[in-house]
Amino acid sequence: MLNPTIKIGNKNVVATGVFITFNDEPSILEFKIKKELYTFNFHFKNTESEKIQVKLSPISDREVQLDFFNFNSALGSSPIKPHHLGKISGKSLYLNALIKKLNDQNQSKVVEYSFYLEN
User: What values do phi and psi take at 67, rounded to 5?
Assistant: First the structure.
């Protein structure tokens, strides 16, 4: 089986994929970088302003909560640029995501994500 390596500029894609949330329940994504487990808690919320926004809240050295506000477009919403999450062994870790609202009957989302680590 192939294990492709994706490089974009001076960054390596360390995790990429797609998942569908279950209504408005939090989603937890975990993966290893250099044998260390990292945890990312995705939460989707709505505010009156309707402005899309991402808020990062560190829980520990290897766990972070990501609050995505007002990502409600069926065509998809994405931050303007990759979100800087912090550093691992002195190298910056970034997240880029495209988030689509699945339907009007519930709050389920389709989340396409890529995590990048500087070379």
Answer: -100, 120
Which residue reads 């939460």 in tokens?
43
Place of tokens 């975990």: 30
Reported as a single tens digit per residue, the pLDDT across 57-86 is: 999 999 999 999 999 999 999 988 999 999
Non-local (6+) Cβ contacts of 100 within 8 A are 73, 74, 75, 76, 77, 109, 110
State the pTM of this model.
0.90
Task: Report the alpha-carbon distance of residue 29 to residue 40 in Å, rounded.
Answer: 5
Residues 99/15, Cβ–Cβ less than 8 Å: no
Place of tokens 């709050």: 107
Q: Across the chain, which distance is largest between two alpha carbons, in Å?
A: 48
